Each structure stands twice: as structure tokens, then as C-alpha cells.
Amino acid sequence: MNERPAKRGVLLTLAYDGTDFHGYQRQDGLRTVQSEVERALEKVDPWASRLRACSRTDTGVHALAQKAAFTGTRDMPAFAYWKELERHLPRDVAVVDAEECALDYEPRFDAVEKTYHYRVRVGPSRDPLRDRTHFHLFRGMIRKGTRESTDVGVSLSLEAMREAASYLVGTHDFVAFRAAGDERKNTVRTIHELSIEREEGTTDALRIVVRGNAFMKQMVRIISGTLLEVGRERREPSWVKTLVEPGKDRRHAGPTAPPQGLVLVSVVLGRDRAEST
Amino acid sequence: MNERPAKRGVLLTLAYDGTDFHGYQRQDGLRTVQSEVERALEKVDPWASRLRACSRTDTGVHALAQKAAFTGTRDMPAFAYWKELERHLPRDVAVVDAEECALDYEPRFDAVEKTYHYRVRVGPSRDPLRDRTHFHLFRGMIRKGTRESTDVGVSLSLEAMREAASYLVGTHDFVAFRAAGDERKNTVRTIHELSIEREEGTTDALRIVVRGNAFMKQMVRIISGTLLEVGRERREPSWVKTLVEPGKDRRHAGPTAPPQGLVLVSVVLGRDRAEST
Hints:
Number of strands of chain A: 10
Low-confidence stretches of chain A: 140-154
CATH architecture of the largest domain in chain A: 2-Layer Sandwich
Mean pLDDT of chain A: 91
Helix content of chain A: 10-25%
Oligomer: homodimer
Largest interface: A-B, 26 and 26 residues
Distance between the termini of chain A: 19 Å
């Protein structure tokens, strides 16, 4: 209920370390990204609308560039909202950009493309500086892995993962790659890029880069868990080809990789931003 | 007070995210790395000695390879201590290696060489995924910096930092680079390497690599703060040359860079490890 007239649409870009959040979306009694940012916004503009975000990232998932719009009632530029919000946010969520947009702009319906990274580290021990942001595959879980050869190229077959990934690029029915219980009708999505890269400057970590038009709940984590089954040589690359064929469901794909490896890296928005409806 | 006979010397390698610790060393009522590891050790071997560590890292400073020895009373190999300790440690400190050593081994007096990294990021906004491990220089603090040119090479002069660093390599009196209040007599140290590198895979972060025989309290952070004064073009590289000349003290060097950028990366130990005295 706005008690003051809407003055300005503001589109925020948010970055967060998802470790200590129960996901992006507001939930009663739980610490979420949305509730922390809305709490800061209430101090800056008590009559502002709630946030309208682009992606509902899960518990433990990170973001470098989540997009969230709101309608403000103060007569000040987006940049000033950015600077004032920053004074009230905890250290694990930050506003990293702010721009003007239409008063009722809905980034969720205007996202044209999203990019996620999924990070994996192999090795014989924990690493407190990377365990917040990487899925750690213990030595014992990696076939052929030995303590001396935890190099990614040795323990996980990049070549096999790349072949498997190639079968998912393009427009397919990804019904086997959505969380069980998700009931939406349209399960066809387009993946523009699915690449597997070593992390620069490391010998023990890799990154799965996924770029596509839209993603279902847990889809990137199921894709990552499936590719890792191939990388660990538990499955052949050609198995992945069958997963986008008719008659498949969630039980046919690999496990859901854990959330801490996942980062929402960027979102491309369409042309609606400037248009008021 | 050991109530059981000493059976085994164990040398641990510890990795930790220093963010939520009041430094390495035990302090009454505060959460420190030593107290957390000793608490775990008490569950595994209640009669084990306290830890004897190699470096007293400050509040907020991280480690990939701190060395800490203890004397155990259980008849089991170092590897078994490692695995049992891991079951009782919090997620921000890990045992990453364990080996046998002399019963009374003191790694602090046997360290031959240590390597530290100091990480710096430049840019116009916070980054929750890197602010735990990098010193963030805001755009406004960087001369010549603009939002579009936050590339390290533009905003911080790597060339000037490298020239300044060259004056500190070798054996010098580092009395100007020790924390005020430190009263030890011998302030001569040898720096084998002091290099400035871009962080791989980034355009906005650099790493100062320091390798030397021994370091005084806050010495690496004062070196880093001093080099950053030069990188930001507040001082000439030749200024750093004067800081190891006679008659200098802490007031002449640059500011102490904040702790979160610092990581103890490795320690080379000498030959005492296997010898019982």
C-alpha cells in the first residue's frame, strides 16, 4: 500500500554470498536476500514497493548480478538509492549497480538470457577458503584419483564432460532436468552455451558455464550433477544424449549437485525496461 | 599435564578462513583458530599437549598451510589423528595434512621460509564473494580510476609497484616495517621474492607475493600498504628505497593494509622435525 505517489522505478543489480541465506525469496521468519534488501529499503524509502526480482535462487546459491526492481517514492536518482541502500546492507549482500526503469518494470518477464557458473574442486581435504563457493569432490569419490594426481584433467575427464555437454546445447525438452514436483507445462528450453573450463590459476578446480534463455528450478544443478557422473566415468557421454529424448523424467538424469557451487553470473534483460505500461 | 605417556609427535597442516576468528593464538573467551583445533583435539585425545604453531596470524588473516605440532598419547598414526580431528572441526578451519614428527618438535623455531599472498581488488562496489579474502580499494580512492577503467593495470600502476618492490628484496633492516610497539632487537630479515601479479581470470584484482626467511608482526601488511601507496601514485617508487636505510621507523612507511587480504600460503620447515631432543 503506497501512501505516497510512485516517483521512480529503480532496477538494482545485487551480488550476494548465498551461504548464510535461505535463498533469495522472502519467507516468514527466515533470513533471505529479499528480506535483507527490503529491510534496508524500508529505512531509505518506507513507502517503496517490494522487490521484483529476476531469479529465485535457492538456499546457498550465490549471485554476482541478480536483477531486482522496485518502485520508489522519493525524488532522487537511482544512484542515490544505491548509495543509501549500501549503508544499511549486511556484508554478504551488496548493491553493485542501479539504474532507472519503468515504474512497474518486471525483470522476471523480461529476462532474455541468463548465465550461471557451477564450480567444482577435487582434492583430499577441505578448503575453508573455497568450500563456500565450490562443490568439493573428495579424493575417495573420484575414480582413478590418487593423492598426487588430483589435477582436474586426471581425476575428472574434461573430454568426456565436454562431449556430454554438447548433447544439451540447443533447444530441447529438459523435463528430465527439473526438480521433482515441479509441474509446469512447458519444459522446452534453449541452451546457448555449455562449456567446461579449468579455473584460471588453479590445478584442482573447474567451472561449468551454462548460458541459456531460461531455466527451471534446479535445472543447472541437475545438469552439473549429470555431467559430473560422466566426468567421474560412472556413465558414458552418450547417456546424456538420451536424457533429452522423449519419455524421460527426473529419475533418469544424474543427482542434483549441491547449491554452494552455483553462481548466477549475469542476466540479459530485454527492451521493456524503459517502457511504462 | 599429561596423565598418559607421550606416544607420538604429530605435525598438522591447517587451512582456515580467518574472517570469524580472533587470530590464530588462544585468547581467553575469544574464538581463535588454536582454541577451536584444541577443542577438537580434546575430543580425540584428552591427554594430548597443546598446539605449537609456526605463525601467530592476526585477526582476519587466512591460512592455506599453517603448521602446528602436538604430542599425542594415543597409539595411532598421524593420518588417523587427521581423520578424527576433521569430524570435530567447524567449517572455517580444516586439517589438510598430518605427518609424524619428533615428540617435542617446535615448528616455530624450525621455519626456514614462509610465503604470504596479499590480495587487492579495485572497483566501484562491494563484492560479497571476494570481500572476505581481498582488500577492496574503492574507485574513489584510486587516482586516475574511472568506472570504466577499473582494470588493475590502469588504476594501480603495476610497474611502479614492481620497481618499489625491488628495493625490498634481499637482506635489510626492516625496522620501519614492524608494528608500532614491537620491541624485539633483531629487525634484519631477508626477502627472497616480492612480486606483484594479476590474479588469473580477473581484470580487477592483483596479488602481492612475499617469500622470506622470517617476518615481524604485521610486516607483510605494512609492506603491502606501502607498495599500494606507490601503486596509487601517492609516492614515488624511490621512496621505498629510503625505508630500509638507517634511521627509519614505523612512521616513515605506508599504512598497514587490512587483514582480510592476507593469506599464509606455505611454510618450509627445516631438518629438526624427525629429531628428538
